[in-house]
Amino acid sequence: MNIQNDSLSHTGAERETSTGNMLERALACMRDCASELRENLAARSDAILFLAKLEDLLAFLGQLESWRGRISVQRLQESAFSILRHLNRWMQEMAKAGIKLESSQNDNGPASLLAKAAICLGPGLMVSPDSLTASVKIPSEFASLWTPARLLASLQRAGIANGIENDAIDRIFKERLFDRWIRTASGKCPVLGNDAEILDCMNLSPSSRPPDDKVKSKKPASNGRFFELVKKTQTILRKTAGSEGEGGKDVYGREIMGAAGMDLNLPEIPYCVPSADGLEIRADVDGCAYCENGVYCVEPAVVIEGNVDYESNDVQTNLAVVVKKDVLSGFSIQSNLDVAVYGVIEGAEVKAGGSLFCRGGIVGGEKSSIQVKKNVYAKHISNARITAGGSVTIKGELIQSSVSAKSVLLTGEKGQIIGGETNAHEDVRAHIIGSESSVKTLIQIEDCSPRLQEEADKLKQSLKERQLRYKKMELAKKALVQACREKTLTAEENDKLKNVQLSALKLAKEIKILEKRLENVNQAILDAEALTPLVLARAKIYPGTSVSIWGKTLTVNEEMGPTVVLFIDGNLMAESFHELARAEGGEV
User: Fold this and answer.
1) How far apart (Å, rounded) are the C-alpha atoms in residues 484 and 430?
2) Which of 393, 430, 436, 398 has its CA nearest to residue 538?
3) H/E run at residue 116
4) CA 128 from chain center: how many Å?
5) Is the confidence at residue 496, as pLDDT, over 90?
6) Over 80: is that where the pLDDT of 523 sits?
7) The whole model's pTM is what?
8) What burial letters (b/e) apply to 429-456, b meaning 16+ CB within 10 Å?
């Protein structure tokens, strides 16, 4: 059988041995066929030409048999097919010439021997690289030698043992589908198991939902809320385990392992515990939950059921704070963790060691002061003073406010910056910057590298001083320990040793903290050096707007369409937002 593209059939040795044996049988049948023809034609004067051809062919057959082992099986197969074609054509020519052929052996005449040779060689067989399909091609010149039963037997001898399509075999002969590849066997493909999925059971803030599409929200992310109150034992995330998959079988009958779906690990969330079956993460405290920059957070919280006002007074706590209504003017909240407000923050003072979430917006006033170590999320901001260590993300307008942050991002179509001063270290992005009435609007991107370098220098100096003190403490401790071995220390010396040990331990912790801070600052310096600061307006920039980036200023005197202002090679460049987006592959 002529096998093509057969990468996964029997092992190479088995396949070659099987093919070699069938080839040997085919050559023997063709030799016997040629000998029978020669005997039939020996006494006929009108068959001299055929006799000469047969003698040459028998000699060539002898050569082929002697070449076995010295040339490839494929070359031998090609030569054998050529001999088969010649014998078949000559027998057809003899029949047309009226030469009747008789067998010298019962039921073993030339025609029968030729059919046996064809069956041994087989039709063309093509097995797909994955061994999941097998196709055959029967040359039309040999069509008379083949039957469905013979083709089926030939496939089985080639090792095709699974998924043979008998209907396709019958169709080849009924519709005379010769000289073309017809699929006659199909294996069963293995089925890949379903991947595990993690369900966001609380539909936490879409503005900060992680980009990983394996974490799916329970409800459409249209409510735009930044945080949720959570009760102890409430489920935060639920995992649907992946399936094992289903095995398959190739056309040779070999089992193909089914691949299991990809598993996912539930993240560890502070103040949460896994369920007994390990498929859920549940809150272990009453508090608030949110998802920020792809990280799920749950924190114990003080919950103010109403306003922060004369009834509640100012709030100061080490826990997170959740306010069900508003924070009124003249009052304050101080928390070492996050602050979440359902309503509005008026002219109040808010300090948070984490992030600030405000669903109702920040309206500010003369006494307004927002200081946040991490990020601010608000519906809108007006007349407020805000300082954030991370980003400030706003769904609506930013009006006549003073904002200082790493990034300032106005995400919606109502995201307009009107008046005030907006300062950032990386980027400012809005739908519209400025106003039709040309209100003075200042946008500034500060080069934070000098400040970071100054901070790094101070940290290095502080670290060096502490390391020197630690070294002196270690020497003093070593001397006291040595003295303890040589004599009994006095009570005063024992107290001194304990103090030195405690001081050294405390100093070692301080050194580790400083080293980590220095590492973070050095990384921030590298990030700042690689940064391309920009100011982006998705719709327009109005006159009256001033954009400053790293000391260079662009004053807008005429309305500009969708624009990106970049600092490149020491100069400001104003580019069309859409053109730059196309140049950058759709992302700016």
Assistant:
1) 69
2) 430
3) helix 110-121
4) 29
5) no
6) yes
7) 0.63
8) bbbbbbbeeebebbbbbbebbeebeebb
